[in-house]
């Protein structure tokens, strides 16, 4: 736009026409608004006063176009001089800045909002320059540092050194993928002596650019209260752990005497009534130990002290051991116990065998406890197999009292039972399922239950229950697998005699898996008929439940028809095997029948022994080869009762025993006679010098004879603590005679004495 010296428009370009909506004719000869004093724009005098003396004027003005639409423009008015150096015209440049102003306004609003947010954040914010000067602080930071206002804080901080306030306690660093920045995380002590401030803070430091300068953005929060709470919790947990450890020790110490004395008495000549009384004492001890172990295991898991281990183990052998543990109580109730495994499950797995056994004993123990008649079945199936990884689905099924629908959700809670009335019939702590859930989840699995049992149509009073859990394991083909010998039984014609439907079903599956040609019968008459029809049958497997109620000439008749037939008897209660009618059976297996025992027994009946099969057989108590002394033991024990019990046990196992009442006396005896003893049995908690320190002292002297911990401490990974101290092995109290014998035999060379 060009005007004359009086401000009358002489020229406008096309852009002006487009922007304002006015034609050139409409504008030419008129005075622009900034030259008019029309009441709307009252700065025309200022404009004219500026430009008429030869200066340029510029400003931002809000105006309207012909349609009345408001917009902002930047106006610059410059004088044009002629050859006489006088003003001849004014040239006016008008730029639409509406969008720029809107962006600037939005930016200003964002900055203001950010400032408000920063000032009111619940975390302290500091901006620190490269000279370690705090150049900006927010309200929370000022308050945390003990100042009433940010101005007061800023004024004080400017006169002080940054390092005066912050002392780094813990430092870490990580790379933020999203921002690409390295972020420092620190735990620091914030101290402002002038304000009597001493606090623990958690701080993040991020390097940023501010006005093209490298600065650090520091965000921190006061965690003093949390630290105090953590300290109190740690102290409480420590006190709790120490209390539980002491409680365990104090309970297990007298329990060791009771259990040991009971075991020793059972091996003496006793009358029937005395045997019954000892049986009651033994079972009561077992129940009490189970309760103690439940409470301690629960405490260890709750405190995060339970560790999961991974070692190779034979799953079938593990389940055989499990059946041994469960069978006594099941036989008392005349319950059928069975296990069934998918044939494609590898024999050897890698995982925590001990925790798996603990879970199964808890769940199967409960199944037996809450089942008065019928059966308990453990099924194991493969649900996922990928490379070396395998996930197994375990199902513990029973025909017991079931769980009411309203209790299903809470049954895994601590100290909860399905029957919570004061007249509970079954007893227990209610921790078994809770511990099982914790262990399953600790091992990376999941657990759930169904009640009633969907696989069976039990009575309304006994709807049954199924506990399910899935656990991950690993496999290794290089590990030995005794299943490689199962084809050795292929084609063996066998007659299975049993009238229990589930037993028949599961035994059939197992025998078929070994390639055995199987015929089944539910009665003696049917069995004899099958033998007449199939004289090539080489083996009879019979359940004594059927034979017990018959006049039992069955085996005699069978051998008349097939003279060379072999016979295997399955017995739930060995006390029932008294009749001469059972003579003629080649072997007898106790129920529940273990997979490995069944396999090796059948194999032994027909062929030479399977390589490695001896490891699969049922192990009985070790039988001494002679009456000679097996070794010399130094027993380090301070409790007089436990001294006597352990001494009697060791003498029963044919060891010579010397007793030391504390660790210091043990050191003195060993130092005086370093080659006299074969093994040291060392208690841990003792006066004068405890077992751990005594072991360390002996190892420091270069004495390396085997030291076995024999302790009532079982709470805080005591096995690991003992091993770290230099011990070789560990036996928890109460000590069982068989456990003691097996452990000592590991460390004493035969005939060394």
TrEMBL record:
InterPro entries, sorted: CheY-like_superfamily, HATPase_C_sf, HATPase_dom, His_kinase_dom, HisK_dim/P_dom, HisK_dim/P_sf, PAC, PAS
Domain PAS: residue ranges: 1-29, 110-151
Modification 4-aspartylphosphate occurs at: 543, 683
E.C. designation(s): 2.7.13.3
Catalytic activity: ATP + protein L-histidine = ADP + protein N-phospho-L-histidine
UniProt xrefs under Gene3D superfamilies: 1.10.287.130, 3.40.50.2300, Histidine kinase-like ATPase, C-terminal domain, PAS domain
Protein name (Swiss-Prot/TrEMBL): Sensory/regulatory protein RpfC
Record GO terms (molecular function): ATP binding; phosphorelay sensor kinase activity
Annotated organism of origin: Geofilum rubicundum JCM 15548
UniProt keywords, alphabetically: ATP-binding, Kinase, Nucleotide-binding, Phosphoprotein, Transferase, Two-component regulatory system
CDD domains, alphabetized: HATPase_EvgS-ArcB-TorS-like, HisKA, PAS, REC, REC_hyHK_CKI1_RcsC-like
Domain of life where this protein originates: Bacteria
SUPFAM superfamilies: ATPase domain of HSP90 chaperone/DNA topoisomerase II/histidine kinase, CheY-like, Homodimeric domain of signal transducing histidine kinase, PYP-like sensor domain (PAS domain)
Domain Response regulatory per the UniProt entry, residue ranges: 493-606, 632-748
PAC domain mapped to chain residues: 57-109
EC primary class: transferase
Pfam families per UniProt: HATPase_c, HisKA, PAS_8, PAS_9, Response_reg
Record-annotated Histidine kinase domain positions: 246-475
PANTHER family: HYBRID SIGNAL TRANSDUCTION HISTIDINE KINASE J
Quaternary structure and interacting proteins, as annotated: At low DSF concentrations, interacts with RpfF.
